[in-house]
Amino acid sequence: MKKFGAFIIIIAIIFLLALNICGVFALRTAKELKEKKDMVKQSEVVLYEGPRSLRDAVAEDLENVSEDKRDYSLLHCTDTFVTVNGQECYVYDTNVNHTRSWYGNYLPPQSRTPVAIFDFEGAVDVEVRVPDRELDKVKISPLSAGIEPQINKDAHTVSFRLVTPGNYTLQFDDSPERALHIFTNHIEKEEDKPDPQDPNVICFGPGEWTVDSLSLSKGQTLYLAGGCVLHTNVNANFISDVKVCGRGILDGSAYECWKGREAYVPLKFGHCKGTEIRDIVVLNSNAWVVEAYDCEDGVIDGLRIISSRPNGDGMSIQSCAHYKISNCFVRSWDDSLVVKNYDLNSDDIVFRDMQLWTDLAQSMEIGFETNKGKKPNATITNVTFEDITVLNNYHKPVISVHNADDALVEDILFRNIVVEHEEVGSGDSDLPYLIDIGVVQNNNWSSTPERGQIRGVSLENVNFMEGNDKYSRIAGFDAEHIVDDVTVKGLVMFGNEVRDADEAKIKISENTVGSVKFE
Question: Which of 313, 200, 216 is nearest to 270 (CA)?
């Protein structure tokens, strides 16, 4: 009986402890839920109504055909609905391109995808409703944000919380089709907005505007307010201290595709110093999107780009020095980020905290044109790609250094690169490599008869998460024009950290490559 009584006491103690633990857990859970609800209650949201003049998209607008067969205009999206803390957010319908092959007539098939833009502080609850889709799986990028969506199949909704302003992309059921891009910012402070009464400020408020090409003068600021859609292109030449900023959209859909003849580059700066581009969105460029040529001391921060037309490079930084590019999103139908020499030498160019989606060509590229101006002693030096997330790369290499002229390309760093998904080699790709480093002669891009060298390329903490297990390549041109001093550290290929060229599937040319070190 004594043993039985002791047993009963022990059971009672365990029961009471369990109740206490459950109570503590319940209190903690309730406290956490309350804190989360309080975060949302205390959050601030700024939503921007899109121009009423934008037409609602209909079924014919979503057909995957060339732009000469349907309306290419920026439209109001009607099949994807977004609310932020219960408030309806305007959704645009812009053009994208899922074609993985070049079209000689410059008229590839065009698709469309939705885009939402808003500002917030604190934490916000976002709900996305897609009534025409059956939802089984939703991926929210960047994956590093750790956002876990809640799917309601019956209501066709996806719900999630955002706690940090930034760029987020939803892909439904492992498909790039009709992916939703959400571009968010911190709320603008009134003291940070330019004064519209200032004679050096060109200000466009909410609504749809169409103007001729805008040429900025020294010290001028172009400001696009939230809810503004401006159809134009912006350029500056041989001046300093110009700025393009705001929360609005610069749209090129009013221009026909350039077809190799006339490019209306949305943001074009030549021979300038101290230029700034901040926080705007650029859609539907008729060619490439950002061109900086012979510029120095430039800043690009918070720019969002979606291009879908041929030669739709995201950012082409040509013969520039001391350029800092950060916190941007680029989805392009040609190279997303590219550094070239068209005239002067290139030096001290940094791309940091970027998200890339490359539908055609390469995500991060040096070259091919490294001495287009045929200058003596041409160099491209000190170029950094750091903290880059590649959401998708469908065509050519994710990382590439191509020297197709006689320049010296030196001290190139790729650090903390995450490739969430790639399908390198798709379509008509003639460069089916994940990483491609080479001194080459190219019939399309070489300008000089002599070749150059590549020295000092570092790849640190590069992680290929999902995709085609393709080869990479390192090759010089001959015994004099070589690739040398390549360092590979912390390379992860589809879950496996690799420690040598064989494991990494990197083909290295024995006679034209010097030192390649794995750490």
Answer: 216
For residue 76, which of 94, 95, 64 has the smallest C-alpha distance? 94
Adjacency order of strands within the sheet including 150-152 = 87-89, 81-84, 124-129, 157-162, 150-152
The residues that bridge with 345 in the sheet, in sequence order, are none
Longest dimension (CA), the chain: 102
The tens-digit pLDDT sequence of the chain (519 residues) is 455 565 666 666 666 666 566 565 554 555 544 445 555 668 999 999 999 999 999 999 999 999 999 999 999 999 999 999 999 999 999 999 999 999 999 999 999 999 999 999 999 999 999 999 999 999 999 999 999 999 999 999 999 999 999 999 999 999 999 999 999 999 999 998 999 999 999 999 999 999 999 999 999 999 999 999 999 999 999 999 999 999 999 999 999 999 999 999 999 999 999 999 999 999 999 999 999 999 999 999 999 999 999 999 999 999 999 999 999 999 999 999 999 999 999 999 999 999 999 999 999 999 999 999 999 999 999 999 999 999 999 999 999 999 999 999 999 999 999 999 999 999 999 999 999 999 999 999 999 999 999 999 999 999 999 999 999 999 999 999 999 999 999 999 999 999 999 999 999 999 999 999 999
Buried (b) or exposed (e) across 247-267, using 16+ Cβ within 10 A? bbbbbbbebbbbeeeebbbbb
